[in-house]
Amino acid sequence: MAEKGQKSLAVNKKARFDYLIEDTFEAGMVLVGTEVKSIRQGKINIKEGYARIENSEIYLHNVHISPYEQGNIFNKDPLRIRKLLLHKAEIRKLIGYVQQKGYTLVPMKVYLQNGLVKLQLGVGVGKKLHDKRQDMAKKDSQRRIQKELGQRQKGME
After folding, report:
1. 28, 69, 109, 157: most buried by Cβ count inside 10 Å?
2. What HAMAP family is this protein classified in?
3. 131: pLDDT confidence band, cut at 50, 70 and 90?
């Protein structure tokens, strides 16, 4: 589902499994040149990442961007805290979400859009174990139905 001029670099598939995502936002990231080069090579891990609101600004924590190989002294700490760029209205909306009990800001996807590194930030509530099991059972039954339909259509031909 990549839009025109958009190249996906990292996807957090586990986020939809662990969280019930209610809304998503597109945010820019404040990066150093060597970090951008490393991200373009796909050397970013957002699985353990999360975002926090501090002083009406949003910061991305625990996202690992591997050091750029030719970066030498210009490389920064791979796990440093990075500021996210959003409009004030979006930040206010996110503050409203996070003040409600149980809501978390989760990085969903990192992609290039017209040469700029963007982050899709999801707002979600953590799923309980029984919710995860229910989702897995639903997906499994859908897979079985599709398999049966495929076999029936092959038999008709």
Report:
1. 109
2. SmpB
3. low
**Does 87 share its domain with 157?**
no
Which residue range forms the structural domain that includes residue 143?
128-157
Residue 43 phi, psi dihedral angles, 5° rounding: -95, 65
The total domain count for the chain is: 2
> In this predicted model, what pLDDT tens digit does every residue of 67-96 receive, in sequence order?
777 767 766 767 788 888 889 998 888 888
Residues 52, 95: one domain?
yes
Q: How many CA atoms lie within 13 A of 4 on its CB side?
A: 0
Quote the CA–CA distance of 73 and 125 in Å, as a whole number. 40
Closest by CA position to 111, among listed 64, 46, 59: 46
User: Confidence band (pLDDT; 50, 70, 90) for 31?
Assistant: confident
Determine contact, residues 85/29, Cβ cutoff 8 Å.
yes
pLDDT of 87: 92
Number of Cβ atoms within 10 Å of the Cβ of 80: 13
Residue 27 and residue 52 in one domain: yes
Residue 57 has a CB neighbour count (10 Å cut-off) of 12
Residue 14 belongs to some domain of the structure: yes
Q: What are phi and psi of 33, to 5 degrees?
A: -55, -40
**141 in the same domain as 85:** no
